[in-house]
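Hello,

Following up on my earlier ticket. Below are the two sequence lines again, exactly as submitted.
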Amino acid sequence: MSFFKDAGHLFRFVGIFVLLFIIFLVARGYVVPKSFGQYGHYRGAAMGEIAAHPLHFAGHQACETCHVDVQDVKKNGKHAHVNCEACHGPLAKHADDPASMTPTKPDTATLCVRCHAASAARPKNFPQVQAEEHSTGLPCETCHQPHSPAMTAGGAK
Amino acid sequence: MKITRRQMLVLLPAAAIAWEHVLAGTPEASPNYTMSEHWWSMLIDIPKCIGCGNCVRACQEENEVPDGFFRTWVERYHVSDEDMTNPVVISPNGGKDGFPPVAKEDAGKYFFVPKLCNHCVDSPCTQVCPVGATFVTPDGVVLVDQKYCLGCAYCVQACPYGCRYIHPQKEVADKCTLCYHRITKGLTTACCEACPTGARQLVDLKNPNDPIHEFLKTHAVQILKPQMATGAKVFYNELDGSVR
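Thanks for your patience. The regenerated structure is below:
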C-alpha cells in the first residue's frame, strides 16, 4: 500500500491534466463552427453563404418571360444567341420589380463598336467595320435594328 | 422574475441547442440543389472570342469586384513569325475597356485568351491554406470562406494561373466563385450570360446531356499548364502553343 500512499501527488497531477483537457474540449466545442468538417477541412456552411449572394444579372430566361416581342424579332436574326444583358447590362432589379427600375437604352454609337470595330486580332469570319468609313458618324441604328441587325430591302426593319 | 433551480436545469440545454444553431450558420440557400449531382467547369472557345470585354465587366458588376482587380480577364496575344515562343501579351485593365488597335505593319498572329480560375481538382491554392478557408466543394468549385480567411496570401502565391488577389477592403483572399450563387440556382455564370459569341460556356461534367461531352470528343481541347498537374478544368478549344 505504500506505493499508493506515496503516489498521491501523481493523482493530483493527473487530475489537473484531465481538468485542463476538459476545458480544452469545451472551449474547442465553442470556437470551432458546427459545420467545420461536414464535407472536408473547411466550414460547410460557407457554401450556403456564398450561394446566397445577390444576383445582378437576371438571366435571359427572366427577360423572355415578358419581352416576347423582342424575342420574336431576335430569334431569326444574327443576334439570336446574344443574351439581352450582354448589351443592356445587369438588370436583376428590373426583373424582380419592373416598376422599380427602368433600364436606359444603350447608346449604339459606343455599344456596337465594342464587338464590331475592325481589329486584326478578331476572328476573320466575325463581322467587323471601320466605324468612321462605314457609317460616317451616323448612329448604327439608323440602318440596323440592333435586335436583328441584317440589312433588308427598304432599310432597317 | 425568479428562476428556480429546476427551471434553470431545463433552460440551459435549450439555450445550448439554440446556440448550436447559431454556430451552424445560415442554411443552404438553394434547397432544390444537390451538390453531388454536379461537377462544374468551363469551356473557352478561343476562335469565338472577339475581345469585347463583356465578361470582365459582367464579372465585376455581378460580384462587386473592386476596380483594378479581376476574377476574369482577357489577354491579347501577338505571336510573331520570327519568335513563336515569346508572344507579346497585353491585357489593359483586364481587357475591360477593349484593346488598342493592331498596327498594320505588325506581322504574325493575334488572338484573345480569356482567363479565370481553373477550378483545379488538385488545386495548389487549397493545399497551402493554413486554416481551411479555401476548399474544393463537392461539386468541383474552388471557393474562399471569407469569414475564415486570415489574408495571409499563401494561396495568392500558390496559384500558378494568378487567379487570386487580396481584396483591398475586406483584406481576405478573393477569386472567381464560378458564380456559385447563380449556378446553384440553375442560371449560368455572369460572364457566360454576357458573352455575345458563346466563347465561354458553363459546363457540368456530371450532366450526361451537357454538349461538352460531344465537344471534347470532336475538338482539340487543352488546359492551361498541364505540366503543373493541377487538374485544371477550364477547357480551351484551339489553344495556341504559345499561351501559358
